[in-house]
Task: inverse folding
């Protein structure tokens, strides 16, 4: 038998989550965001299951071409646009759609000899201050592009900084977007997963859900409606009783407060389990919530199983996150976000596909 770790991917959960997204935003078209190798789930696998989305959104031409090479004919949006003027040819040739967020990209478009129509999504910086034009600059850019390039069909978009909290800042971003776009008759896109769940008024024509398709980043009121796609699994490979006052693991950062049963599971930061996960981070052992103790090693974690001594044995299943234990909870404990954990599962972890329809 080989090392017992795997990332189990439930294909049915992807399809289910897409249906749930559609139910939340029935009037909007859906860009399924599958950049960064489908948030670490494997872009081809994810695209197959999400094929009924209206289009795919990715980070670069390279990511888009992987989809074209796999035979996907969908609309594909480049969320950061192009990185060089030479990519315009590829955009035309492969029928890609591009975000335009900076003057240099506008200049490339104006200078290009465009033969086939290109769909361009002009990005407004509504306050996040990452990519996009100020509302004032946006107006001028739209006029410039409209007048100079009849082969360009225009669309507008923006991005939320914190739509998981329906706070004043989010309301302000929405107001800036409405103000800048209300007199224009172009398709609009604003909502990421948080806004899809939180802000119906921000759905507009196209939503751009990412993390929620993978069953993470879900509001508590919607938890039961979405399913974790990836379950990170391993097994117990050692069990050992320690006396009170013994240290566990590198640096001996955790000491037993009583006679303790310590289990070792085959998973560590070499697999993508976060090294910063502190003692107390939950894991499921045989479906029961236990806690890791001591430092995360490259290939192993240590777990306090004292309270489960009667029911655990070597070979028992351990879930690091996924089914029954949200990746968001582990991320929170480790001071990061679910996105990073999902993207960070390493190459050595085998992927197992299942198709569990419930
Ligand atoms: C421009 C843009 N739109 C949509 C998304 C999807 O966001 P989420 O995964 O939070 O739904 C992202 C992700 O980072 C993004 O950068």
Result:
């Amino acid at each position: 038998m080989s090392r017992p770790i795997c990332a189990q991917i439930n294909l049915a959960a992807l399809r289910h989550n897409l249906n749930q997204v559609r139910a939340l935003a029935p009037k909007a078209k859906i860009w399924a965001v599958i950049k960064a190798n489908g948030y670490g789930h494997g872009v081809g696998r994810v695209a197959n299951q999400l094929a009924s989305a209206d289009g795919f959104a990715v980070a670069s031409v390279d990511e888009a071409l992987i989809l074209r090479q796999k035979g996907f004919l969908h609309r594909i949006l480049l969320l950061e646009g192009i990185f060089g003027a030479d990519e315009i040819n590829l955009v035309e040739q492969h029928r890609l759609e591009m975000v335009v967020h900076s003057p240099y990209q506008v200049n490339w478009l104006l200078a290009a000899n465009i033969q086939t129509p290109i769909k361009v999504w002009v990005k407004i910086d509504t306050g996040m201050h990452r990519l996009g034009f100020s509302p004032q600059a946006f107006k001028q850019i739209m006029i410039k592009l409209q007048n100079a390039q009849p082969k360009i069909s225009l669309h507008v978009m923006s991005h939320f900084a914190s739509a998981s909290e329906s706070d004043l800042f989010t309301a302000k971003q929405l107001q800036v977007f409405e103000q800048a776009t209300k007199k224009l008759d172009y398709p609009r896109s604003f909502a990421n997963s948080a806004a899809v769940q939180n802000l119906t008024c921000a759905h507009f024509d196209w939503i751009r859900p990412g993390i929620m398709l993978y069953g993470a980043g879900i509001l508590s009121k919607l938890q039961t409606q979405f399913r974790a796609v990836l379950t990170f699994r391993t097994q117990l490979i050692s069990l050992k009783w320690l006396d009170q006052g013994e240290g566990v693991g590198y640096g001996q950062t955790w000491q037993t407060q009583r006679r303790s049963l310590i289990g070792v599971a085959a998973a560590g930061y070499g697999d993508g389990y976060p090294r910063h996960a502190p003692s107390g981070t939950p894991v499921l052992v045989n479906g029961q919530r236990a806690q890791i103790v001591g430092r995360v090693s490259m290939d192993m974690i240590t777990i306090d199983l004292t309270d489960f001594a009667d029911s655990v044995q070597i070979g028992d299943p351990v879930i690091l996150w996924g089914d029954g234990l949200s990746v968001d909870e582990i991320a929170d404990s480790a001071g990061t976000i679910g996105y990073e954990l999902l993207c960070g599962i390493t190459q050595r972890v085998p992927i197992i596909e299942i198709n569990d329809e419930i």
Notes: The longest strand covers residues 230-242. The two ends are 29 Å apart (CA to CA). The chain has a mean pLDDT of 97. Residues 239 and 263 are 4 Å apart (CA to CA).
